[in-house]
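@channel sequence for tomorrow's demo:
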Amino acid sequence: MKPFPRLILFIGLFLLLLLQACGPYQFKGTLYEDPPAAANFELSRSDGGRLRLSDLQGKIVLLFFGFTTCTDVCPVTLSDAKRIYEALDDQAENLAYLFITVDPERDTPEKLAGYVSNFNENIIGLTGTEEELAAVREDYGIYAAKVPLKSGVGYTMDHTARVYLIDSEGNLRLTYAFGTPYEDILQDIKQILIEKESR
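structure tokens (generated this afternoon):
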């Protein structure tokens, strides 16, 4: 190839890459097209007191439903939460991570508090009455059911394994399937923080 056409080709490729880099940010999670207001709720904190979702207005909220005797999905998800908090460093104050139990029968406030603090002291464990928890699950489309076991444990819980992101304005913005790399969630959080600062 002659030098001049090669130069034009390189310039064209460079401009194409530049245009892609300047394009709108592509979120890693599943976006709600017209983000609805996140359903407000009030539940009991595992460390005492009550918490309303609306109390967290101004923060980005990550919401996950699980249980303390879970052996796979929940510890993996909360390990990712720990990594997200660590990576955010000084910006971690802009994030609230809520772990809502789907097994209030076994997840006492004390057990829940000990469990979430094993991952990060900022993770908030939440519980409530069966009725309160069922209402929150319904609002967020969460499936949860007991699965009998033959072992001495008695039962396990089958449940929706997604993380929900509520933005600082209280809108249900994104959702993440189990197995989404924590780096993707982190990147989306940072982008939303950039958007917030630019307003």
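heads up for whoever presents: Residues 116 and 123 are 6 Å apart (CA to CA).
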